[in-house]
Amino acid sequence: MNTVREQRELGLNGTDFKNHVVIIGWNDFGKSVISHLVAAGKQVAIVTKDRSNIDSIREYFNSDQVFTLYADYANHEMLEKSNIREASIVFVNMNDDTEKLVYVINLKKHFANLNYVVTLDNGNLKNTFQNAGVTYTICKNEISAKLMASYIFEPDVALFSEEILAYAQTDTDYDIKQMKVPTGNPFVGSFYDKAYFDLKKTCNVILVGLVKNKEGKRQFLKNPEGTVTIEAGDYLVMLMDGTARTKLKKQFLIHEEV
Questions:
Q1: Do 115 and 177 share a domain, yes or no?
Q2: 102 and 64 both lie in a single domain
């Protein structure tokens, strides 16, 4: 029985999570990211090569939301147990930029058609990572610097920026969401302007932009002018509180997706 339980705890039986986030590496920053993902209802698979991390992760997070896998990061057969091919995105969470770059290059040889995200200490490496096939590169120092500058000369804007970056915990918290427009949705075929006024009137939601996928590339139209038409598969980017989010899901049957 102990062997069976240990296999389950170490993730050796695999997971059936889909459209989830796979995180390679565990540290305090990763823990904070996972807390926000779990609060947003996103399932996460964590891969760690440190056996002692497993107990810590299981102590903090429910196994229904977070799957833990004890494996060497270079063991691609073991990574399959995280159902990595069905993940919406892979977050490579290592401590060194060079280590991340080498790892991503090797990982993409085995899992080419996935979205990858990394954080960087050195913002000058952004283009290098993007050329290596990383979908999103985030420089922690750049974000901190922008927020700090905002607090200095526009503190109220900075406070609101922090609020909308985080997942709304209560009905009065504000948040920015992107939601996919499914086939058959009443907004399909509508002009952006009409959707803007309809959303504000019926749900108190502010539409701030539209994301279109053209030939595999995402195009973010920020508050577009003119006769921009909403199509099935587009993403609406909206500012809302928790109450508005509930109304939106009921009336228009759209949900968060990546």
A1: no
A2: yes
* Euclidean distance between the first and the last CA atom of the chain, given in angstroms as a whole number: 39
Average pLDDT of the chain, as a whole number: 91
Sequence-distant (6+) residues with CB within 8 A of 131 are none
Does the structure show a pLDDT above 60 at 239?
A: yes
Q: How far apart, in whole angstroms, are the C-alpha atoms of residue 108 and residue 116?
A: 9
Tokens representing 156 are 């109220």
Q: What residues contact residue 164 under an 8 Å CB cut-off, 6+ apart?
A: 174, 175, 176, 239
Looking at the structure, tell me whether residues 123 and 17 fall in a common domain. Answer: yes
Q: Are residues 128 and 15 in the same domain?
A: yes
pLDDT tier at 154, thresholds 50, 70, 90: very high
pTM of the model: 0.84
Helix locations, the chain, DSSP H? 2-9, 28-39, 51-60, 76-79, 97-110, 126-131, 140-153, 155-165, 192-203, 242-252
Tell me the C-alpha distance between 110 and 87, whole Å: 14
Please check whether residue 156 lies inside any domain of the structure.
no
User: Residue for token digits 């932009």?
Assistant: 209
Same domain, 176 and 118: no
Section 49-68 average pLDDT: 92
